[in-house]
Amino acid sequence: MHSRGLRFSKVNFEKSLANKFTLDENKNIIPPFSALEFVTETMAEDIYNACKNNKFISVEDFTKLTKVNKNALESIRQYGLLDSMQEKNQLDLFSMF
C-alpha cells in the first residue's frame, strides 16, 4: 500500500466515522469504527454518535454510552483506544499523586 502512496492513520474517537473510511488533513486514510474486530455496524454507529455528543472520562462511561459487548470492548482495548482512560468513574485518591 505504501508503494502506491496510500497511508493509513489509526481509528480514533475524534476523526473516525462509523462505517466509512475518511481522509485526514494529510490525506491519510482513517478507518471506521466498524473496521475493528467484533465491532458491528450498529455498535460502530453507537460509538460514533456517542463520540459526537460526549467526551468519555472512563472505560465504564464509554461502555454505558456505547453499549458495546465484551468482545468488541476487548478489541477496542487491544487497539489502544482506551489507553488514556481510567477504568471506573470513581475518583481514585492514589492516582492523583
TrEMBL record:
GO MF terms, alphabetically ordered: 3'-5' exonuclease activity
All residue ranges annotated as the DNA polymerase helix-hairpin-helix motif domain in the record: 10-88
Gene Ontology terms: biological process: DNA replication
Gene3D superfamilies: 1.10.150.870
Superkingdom to which the source organism belongs: Bacteria
Protein name per UniProt: DNA polymerase helix-hairpin-helix motif domain-containing protein
Source species: Citroniella saccharovorans
Lineage: Bacteria, Bacillati, Bacillota, Tissierellia, Tissierellales
